[in-house]
Amino acid sequence: MTTESTTNLQVRAAIPRTVAIKGSRTTEDFLAYEKAKKRKATIRRIFRGAVGIFGLLVLWHIMSVAYDLQLILPTPFAVLRRVYGMLTLDTTRWLYGPNVYVHLALSFQRAMIGFGLAAALAIPLGLLIGRIPTLREYLAPVITAFYPVPGIAWIPLAILWFGLSDKAVIFVVFMTAFFPLYFSTEAGARQINPLLIDAGRCFGAHRLKLFYHVVLPATVPYITTGMRIGLGGAWRMIVAGEMLASAEGIGYMLMEARFNFRAVDLMTAMILISIIGYLTELLIVRLIEKRTTEKWEVKTS
Strands, DSSP E only, in 183-233? Predict the structure, then answer.
């Protein structure tokens, strides 16, 4: 074998290794770029959100001071001081029975039970009606007939059925959260591309496998959207329900603050509802998205 042939063989043997090393570096660089891109997007989103909230607080303060509305529109500083006082259990001029944590815990419990019951019924029902046309023809008109009834209209009936109890509040939360969950799930299940179903069947997926590997991943983005809307509705209705059908909870606090003409306590309760509602949505819906759409790499936009 000549020296030239030996050199050519060495070069050829080195080519795959070089390409592999280069490919590996390219992959690592791409992953590092994607990670840095997501980090920058997160920082940008947080910064812009903070700017928006700060702008709202500034506008709020200007309106309160410029028009001398502290009695009915307390300044942000007064409300934040009251939030701090409530959370640290400063009982100065406390007029609402148990401490704020008891009220928040009761409201959270009622909201989650009502929302959980709504999800347990609405999501399976939406999947079935979305995928079975015959069932849709029977049940869709019945559900649609109840949809225009506002959630607050169920409160008198709930009081008549369950009295002034937790069950009445849970019932109106259930009725409010059910419809966004159902309609979002049903729309997602009904609008699945038939090509995806046919492709799954070609690969041998039938019944449960087809449902788990095709129908559910395609519907989950719709379900999480319905959950976001349903959670917001649950927290709005928990306040309305507790105002009229309970002597405890954050809605009761709001009503009592109105009776005592304490705008600072009213706005404090509203801020606490906003914080708890946001954290609830973040923990529940975001966790589901991480376990489903992000894990399955489902395109949501």
Answer: none
Which residues of the chain fall short of a pLDDT of 70?
1-25, 91-92, 196-201, 203-207, 294-301
Q: Are 73 and 63 in contact (CB under 8 A)?
A: yes
Residue located via tokens 């770029």: 33
Residue 148 placed within a domain: yes
Indicate the number of domains in the chain: 1
Cα 120 to chain centroid, rounded: 16
Cα separations in angstroms, 277 against 26, 93, 171, 281: 43, 26, 19, 6
Token representation of residue 197: 């179903």
Token pair for residue 249?
A: 């909870």
pLDDT value for 185: 92
Q: Which long-range contacts (CB under 8 A, 24 or more apart) does 219-222 make?
A: 219/127, 219/130, 219/185, 219/188, 219/189, 219/192, 220/188, 220/288, 220/292, 220/293, 220/296, 220/298, 221/188, 221/293, 221/298, 221/300, 222/184, 222/185, 222/187, 222/188, 222/189
Cα separation values, 295 from 123, 131, 189, 274, Å: 20, 24, 20, 29
Does 269 map to a domain? Answer: yes
CATH of the domain at 123: 1.10.3720.10
Helix (H, G, I), strand (E, B) or coil at 116: helix
Q: What is the pLDDT of residue 180?
A: 92
In this structure, is residue 124 part of a structural domain?
Answer: yes
A 10 A CB-CB count for 53 gives: 10
Give pTM, 2 decimals: 0.78
Instruction: Report the C-alpha gap between 220 and 233 in whole angstroms.
Output: 20
Are residues 193 and 219 in contact, defined by beta-carbon separation less than 8 angstroms? no
